[in-house]
Amino acid sequence: QKARPRDRKGGFVGFAPAFAGDNSGAGASRGSSREELLPLSHNQEEVQAISHHFQQSQLLLGEDASVEELVSNWENARFIHLATHAITDLDDPGQSFLAGSTVATAGAEARLPIAELYPFDLGAELVVLSGCGTQQGKEFYGEGIASLAQAFYKMGAQSVLSTYWSVDDKS
Predict the structure, then answer these.
(1) 3-state SS track over the chain
(2) Which of 33, 62, 74, 82: CA 20 to 30 A from 51?
């Protein structure tokens, strides 16, 4: 895929939302259940540590890490790191989503579903999807696997780092 020429002023965008819920979430996985998105105790320090390697960083942390803030800040980024819950729906891939902060929304789910990703034009050099099963999806003949990772490729990301497995928050 060809790189799209653009002014990439943003450098690095890091996204690490806070989640309302039971704080006994030590060892929570990043995407284990649709029922309740447990707090992630280490996602903010993960994003902050990575941001030190970039001259320009935009950090969306805690309750400020809303879906709206992410979408308004990622367009010109060269590198995007999303340390959040990812929920994959193998039966209906369009329902798979990345989660934004539920603290600012009084516990209400803040979702960024696959279907809403496709209209964006990213052109980032690297998108890291630090969440569970971000490469999982439903296979469609001639199309490949409909996954969160594939959605970011279709948005124009040159490289996407994703996983098939659960990700322990502390790792």
Answers:
(1) CCCCCCCCCCEEEEEEECCCCCCCCCCCECCCCCCCCCCCCCHHHHHHHHHCCCCCEEEEEECCCCHHHHHHHCCCEEEEEEECCEECCCCCHHHCEEECCCCCCCCCCCEEEHHHHCCCCCCCCEEEEECCCCCCEEEECCCEEEEHHHHHHHCCCCCEECCCCCCECCC
(2) 33
